[in-house]
Design goal:
202 residues, alpha+beta, 2 domains, 12-stranded antiparallel beta sheet
């Protein structure tokens, strides 16, 4: 069983990063958090400044757009789910390593909230990007991008582009990892195996 917590876009991003570092959820409810932010004004029975009122309106509007799941034993963040403005349609899911607390995967969805648009895979040790996969329809792969990490920075080294079936290679782009410049592009015939031509970048 997981523990859920609602955060706020715009405000939740800072909450999310601090939660991940501390490994424990913020137990304040939305109402309690709002009360905490405005208590010093309420006690004085004064009109809230415009910036505070805007803050409250923003949080009320977006309070269902980001939900965090925590391990009930350790309190570590396991997953963060972002929603579209309707508060129901999933926009993106981020999964975290239960030990290192680093993000290990991000899954983005098309507007229907069900069909996968892309996935990003990260190194659990340092959160460096390892692989990015883009889909035509949630199943057939359109592009597979591979990365290598140097000095804490991910550098693209290869992009494989597939035909509409998501399996047959159309062409492959090789990059210089130190500059991200294209080294060459290899085009394949209809079988996806036989090389048609190789275009090198001067």
């Amino acid at each position: 069983m997981r523990i859920n917590k609602i955060s706020f876009l715009g405000f939740g991003q800072n909450q999310k990063s601090s939660v991940k570092k501390k490994g424990t959820p913020n137990n304040l409810s939305a109402n309690a958090e709002l009360k905490s932010n405005t208590s010093r004004y309420d006690e004085a029975d004064t009109v809230l400044p415009d910036i505070i009122q805007a803050d409250i309106r923003h949080k009320e509007k977006f309070k269902n757009l980001y939900v965090e799941d925590f391990d009930p034993v350790t309190g570590n963040l396991l997953r963060g789910t972002s929603y579209l403005d309707d508060g129901k349609t999933v926009e993106c899911i981020e999964d975290y390593d239960p030990v290192t607390l680093n993000k290990i995967k991000e899954t983005g969805y098309f507007d229907d909230g069900k069909t996968v648009s892309y996935t990003y895979d990260y190194d659990p040790e340092n959160e460096d990007l390892l692989k990015a996969t883009y889909y035509y329809d949630g199943k057939a792969i359109e592009i597979l991008a591979e990365y290598e990490s140097k000095n804490g920075v991910s550098h693209i080294i290869k992009e494989t582009h597939y035909r509409r079936d998501g399996k047959t290679v159309n062409y492959i782009i090789d990059f210089d990892p130190s500059t991200a410049n294209v080294l060459c592009t290899t085009y394949y015939k209809a079988d996806g195996i036989t090389v048609d031509r190789v275009e090198k970048t001067l």
